[in-house]
Design goal:
single chain, 23% helix, globular
Length: 162
């Protein structure tokens, strides 16, 4: 079971990563920055939601496979989970990145266990420090299998609050 942290009461909340239906994709009109409907044409979309309130999307992820490598095309946490002081749930991005890492171990080939993505300039240091991502070229980053296993253990096998 995946858990995210309810910042209001400080308790872990049971959550799940699922493939959404077309009608349940996050929308820009609801404050999301990415066009998830457009992204779904080129990759597989996953959403993170709590078990108790499955109608609320806490974060979204777009993955695709190219050249035996898992590419994280987009990652976004819900508008109500952004910010240090006013977010409702924490660990959302970590859970989604760890989920991508877990999926990457299912792909055969030389890049099994690797996840690659293009980062915004202002997030490169954050991805490196928080998730162990490494800079490859330009803004292209990757998470190797060793750091992927650490993220899976930390975010997908969590049983207590850090």
């Amino acid at each position: 079971m995946i858990y995210i942290l309810d910042t209001i009461n400080g308790k872990l909340v049971k959550s799940e990563v699922v493939v959404p239906g077309t009608k349940t994709l996050p929308l820009k009109k609801d404050g999301w920055k990415f066009n998830w409907r457009q992204l779904s044409k080129d990759g597989e979309i996953y959403i993170l939601r709590t078990v108790d309130t499955p109608e609320n999307i806490e974060g979204a992820l777009c993955l695709r496979i190219q050249y035996d490598m898992l590419i994280m095309d987009a990652l976004e946490i819900a508008p109500h989970n952004i910010g240090r002081t006013h977010k409702r749930y924490d660990y959302v991005a970590g859970c989604l990145i760890a989920y991508a890492c877990r999926e990457s171990f299912k792909i055969p080939g030389d890049y099994k266990g690797f996840v690659t993505f293009v980062s915004k300039n202002n997030l490169i240091k954050w991805y490196a420090e928080k998730y162990g991502a490494e800079l490859a070229l330009g803004q292209r980053m990757f998470i190797d299998w060793e750091n992927g296993e650490k993220l899976i253990d930390k975010y997908l096998n969590r049983t207590k609050i850090d």
